[in-house]
Amino acid sequence: MKIIVPVKRVIDYNVKPRVKMDGTGVDLANVKMSMNPFDEISVEEAIRLKEKGVATEIIAVSIGVAKAQETLRTALAMGADRAILVQTDDEVEPLAVAKILKAIVDEEQPGLVILGKQAIDDDSNQTGQMLGALLGRPQGTFANKLEVEGETATVTREVDGGLETVKLALPVIITTNLRLNEPRYASLPNIMKAKSKPLACHAPADYGVDIAPRLQTLKVSEPPKRSAGVKVADVDELVAKLKNMGVAA
Amino acid sequence: MKTLVWVEHDSGAIKDATLSAVTAAAKLGEVHLLVAGSGVGAVGEAAAKIAGVGKVHVADAAAFDHVLPEAIAPLVVELMGHHDAFVAPATANGKNIAPRVAALLDVMQISDILLVEGDNTFTRQIYAGNAIATVKSSDSKLVITVRGTAFEKAAREGGSGAVEAVSGSGENAGSSFVGAEISKSERPELTSAKIIVSGGRALQNSENFHSIIEPLADKLGAGVGASRAAVDAGYVPNDYQVGQTGKIVAPEVYIAVGISGAIQHLAGMKDSKTIIAINKDEDAPIFQVADIGLVGDLFKVLPELSDKL
Predict the structure, then answer these.
(1) Which of A178, A228, B13, B37, CA to CA, is 20 to 30 A from B267?
(2) pTM over 0.90
């Protein structure tokens, strides 16, 4: 069974994003970029399934700029077998990403597609669900635990009040939550090996997908700033404040 | 514009997040509701009473139980033949269903909106709330999820919508429900609590979390939250997490105890009306957003605070 793992190149988790002065977006010039943290979890989960003998091949896919090759190399260094870059300099919205992924799934026929539940740049949380719809396949979103046996995936999902378990017939779309696993670091020998693993380059047009955006970003602005308030000296002063606010009697 | 709002309900009660979604939908036009599930007649009746509601579509069938998106999305798509916008609360279930609907309609969803600026223009947070984007849709129909804390809740009473049964095809692309472990708590739910007491890694272990955070929460009638670090360390279950990838909250008062204030945590709580921070590190970033700060050892401060309230 093949597993497809889409990975996105995004601003590094530890970098504080800054809004551009002209209000057109977030400044990404000279900013450290990394693999979307949820996608690292997806790659790790795919590797574990391969180690268990459930999967035979892991294909990492990225849609984005030429530099997304670095993100794919990271996935290959972690343990993916080959990579596909669908290269474009344009911003690609989740709907178009899902359409490209559908075309790749139609070609590769994987048993599982494991995606991050959201990218930490646009925070959309859409692509996996959209892919499930386009393929007419079930989805196990916000996965906390994944077990694959025969033709069935059992997925424990994080929901608002706790956990929920569903059984899904393969092929299945999974989206990963934070605590599904802890992704490994690529070892130096594996980073070297990754350089010679196959990486194919395509364009969105190769898949017949129109990536023209449906949403126009009119402006991007800074959120309203909160300013630091007062410091209280001790608990008594805090209690007095709480009583003043009517929070405590 | 005719909108269709998906009603989230649990054991017969309509969830607060739905009421916020109704308020957002009302800014776009006429509000119709969809109540789906099995044995949901009473929920449909209750939904019809929500202020400002027109028609309530009730899909009562076992196929719609447990909110499986593979079954609900095709039902919504059928109804969208007569509606211009699909609106869902940005809850775990709403997020599970809406993009599936959007893809089937060939529409680019607008996630987690904060504001309705116009018929097809909305604002939403990106980059963990470090930027706010104003986006305009060019799609012929809209699919939107609504951040509950950003909109007032519509009144539960005052409406007189017409209830109409719908059947739907009952198709399901291969999913079935096995079970759920939902935390039972007497405390208010995080996303609707007026006061939240949240604990961080500084609590050191699960016992401390319970013995130090919970008494204060109980005194204040507050919900209990946690930082990612506290959840990662296993002090409390995952559904306590407040932040970019956890719950987004905006209570009247948010009390952060032993939480340093990583940007991912701030993303989940910085719209709270009043933020109170208790931390022994006076340089902790949480103090930059706190209205009231107390520098001190939580192991001394919290018991004293619980005592004196």
Answers:
(1) B13
(2) yes
